[in-house]
Fold:
Amino acid sequence: MHGSGGSPVRGLTRDAVRASFPDGAEAVEGDLARPASLKSALDGVRSVFLVPGMGADADVLTAARQAGVEHVVLVSSITVRTHPHLPAAAGNLAVEQLLRDSGMSWTILRPTQFASNALWWAESIREHRSIRVPYADIGLPAVHPADIAAVARTALTGPGHRGRTYALTGPERITPRQQARAIGAALGHEVSVEEISREEAHRQMAPFLGEQTAHAVLDLMGGDVNDELLKVHDTVPSVTGSPARPFRQWATENVAAFR
Structure:
């Protein structure tokens, strides 16, 4: 959360993640699942960064408005535009509308596939130096999570971003095969790729994602792509003034997860 000028910046955090705040920042704990607990955390706060689904979003927004919060930066999803028929996209759109109707100013971030989704492959790469994926040669403009954070920081702390909706992507499309190559380059050895069918991928994913969610994820991985999902946006550099980070940078920064 971004505090008012001269006030400390306060965050909703637990003990495990509160150690690295800069000088002048104050950590105040609140539980998004218990909006009544947010009162002290929201005291003096003007802007809030919100990831939906961590609690009752309507109640969290009500608590923010009652505390005098002026501006909320919300992380939604690009699927609100590309695949509005999917349940998760409909849920994100509902939270967007709650925010628009809240009476507070808003900025909505709609990122595409995260570069960090490659962590799904970490165990396979560590144990077998290989991955098994569907749609191995369909490229999506995966976004580095740090770029989402950079846009959010700019929106929270700078002028000109209220009432704006930002689609966030990386600087280029990259396929799973190319991602494996980038991870292999960071590791210093080849990571092989075996393309599997959608049906086999669904059998692997459904036990822990559920039938419907597994189908939705597979659509977004390549089974139901469209021009909007494939589009590379220049939002990150235009908002932050810095180039969007390529996937190879994410792979280098997170190589330890694959060793």
Observations:
- The radius of gyration is 20 Å.
